[in-house]
From TrEMBL:
Catalytically driven reaction(s): uridine(2552) in 23S rRNA + S-adenosyl-L-methionine = 2'-O-methyluridine(2552) in 23S rRNA + S-adenosyl-L-homocysteine + H(+)
The keyword Acetylation belongs to this UniProt entry's keyword annotation: no
Active site: K186
InterPro entries reported for this sequence: RNA_methyltr_RlmE, RNA_MeTrfase_FtsJ_dom, rRNA-MeTfrase_E, SAM-dependent_MTases_sf
Family from the record: Belongs to the class I-like SAM-binding methyltransferase superfamily. RNA methyltransferase RlmE family.
Alphabetized Pfam families for the sequence: FtsJ
Residue sites binding S-adenosyl-L-methionine per the record: G83, W85, D106, D122, D146
Purpose: Specifically methylates the uridine in position 2552 of 23S rRNA at the 2'-O position of the ribose in the fully assembled 50S ribosomal subunit.
Enzyme Commission code: 2.1.1.166
A Gene Ontology biological process term: cell division
Source species of the chain: Mesorhizobium alhagi CCNWXJ12-2
Protein's recorded name: Ribosomal RNA large subunit methyltransferase E
Gene behind this protein: rlmE
One GO term describing the cellular component: cytoplasm
Keywords assigned by UniProt, alphabetized: Cell cycle, Cell division, Cytoplasm, Methyltransferase, rRNA processing, S-adenosyl-L-methionine, Transferase
C-alpha cells in the first residue's frame, strides 16, 4: 500500500491517495473497491465527523438544499443501518433519548443512535407500519427511505428490488404522513414506475428527482423527493 498527496475533496479536506498493490492477494474487483473506498473524500470526512456512513452526507446535502428537517419534527427512517441518516435527523430535529422523535427500522442490527430508536425488523413485514407508528407516538412530518435491497451481482435484479422497496415506502408515506409532510426515497435513474410518480404527484404539491453530490456520479442512484403532502381526504 502506498500513499500520495491528493486533491482537496468536499469540505476542503486534502486526502492522501492510497494505492493498493496489484499483487496484494485481493481479487481485482475487491482491490479496486477498497482503493476507491479508502480514497473517497466523503468516507474520510464522515469518519472525521463521527458519522456512521458516508450516506449521512447525502441527507445533509439534500436537506441543506431543500430545508426539510426542522426542530421538533417527527421522522421515520426506513432502512436505517448503520445509522448515518438517523444521526443527521436526530441532530436536526433536536430529538432526545427522553423524547425521541426519530424512529428507524432495519433488519440489520446497528449500534444505538441517541434520540433515534430503531426497530429491528423487516419493513415489508405486515405489522411493521403499526409498530413504527406506535414507536413514533404521532404522525410523521417526514418519511425517508434509503432502503436498498441486498446486492445479488445482477444489477437489474437489484434495481427492481430496490424500486419495489421505494414503492412500498411511498404507499406507507401517504398512509401516515401529516398534511404538509415530505417523502424522500432512494430510487434509480429511469427506474421509478410511472404509476408511483403519478400517485405521488396526486398526493404532494411537488415531486422532484434529486442527486446530491455525495451520491457517486457513476451510480444510477437518485432520490425521489415529494414535498408538501396534501393530506388524506
Ligand atoms: C444504504 S443502507 C442505509 C444507510 C443509512 N441511510 C445510513 O445513513 O446509515 C440500506 C439499508 O436498507 C436496509 N433494508 C433493505 N431492505 C430492508 C427492509 N425490507 N426492511 C428494513 N430494512 C431494509 C438494509 O439492511 C440496509 O441497512
Amino acid at each position: 500500500m502506498t500513499k500520495k498527496p491528493g486533491k482537496a475533496g468536499p469540505g476542503g479536506i486534502r486526502v492522501l491517495k492510497t494505492r493498493i498493490k496489484k499483487k496484494s492477494g485481493l481479487k481485482e474487483s475487491s482491490r479496486r473497491w477498497l482503493e476507491r473506498h479508502m480514497n473517497d473524500p466523503y468516507v474520510q470526512r464522515s469518519k472525521a465527523a463521527g458519522y456512521r456512513s458516508r450516506a449521512a452526507y447525502k441527507l445533509i446535502e439534500i436537506d441543506d438544499k431543500h430545508h426539510l428537517l426542522k426542530p421538533g419534527m417527527r421522522v421515520i427512517d426506513l432502512g436505517a443501518a448503520p445509522g448515518g441518516w438517523c444521526q443527521v435527523a436526530a441532530a436536526r430535529t433536536k430529538s432526545t433519548p427522553e423524547h425521541p422523535n426519530v424512529v428507524g427500522i432495519d433488519y440489520l442490527e446497528m449500534d444505538a443512535v441517541p434520540g433515534a430508536p430503531v426497530l429491528l425488523m423487516d419493513f415489508l413485514d405486515e405489522d411493521a407500519p403499526e409498530k413504527l407508528a406506535e414507536a413514533l407516538g404521532g404522525p410523521p412530518d417526514i418519511v425517508m427511505s434509503d432502503m436498498a435491497a441486498p446486492t445479488t451481482g445482477h444489477r437489474q435484479t437489484d434495481h427492481i428490488r430496490t424500486m419495489h422497496l421505494c414503492e412500498v415506502a411511498a404507499d406507507f408515506a401517504v398512509s401516515v404522513l401529516k398534511p404538509g409532510g415530505h417523502f424522500l426515497a432512494k430510487t434509480f435513474q429511469g427506474g421509478t414506475e410511472n404509476s408511483v410518480l403519478t400517485m405521488l404527484k396526486q398526493n404532494f404539491r411537488s415531486v422532484h428527482h434529486v442527486k446530491p453530490p455525495a451520491s457517486r456520479e457513476e451510480s444510477a442512484e437518485l432520490y425521489l423527493l415529494a414535498k408538501d403532502f396534501k393530506g388524506r381526504s
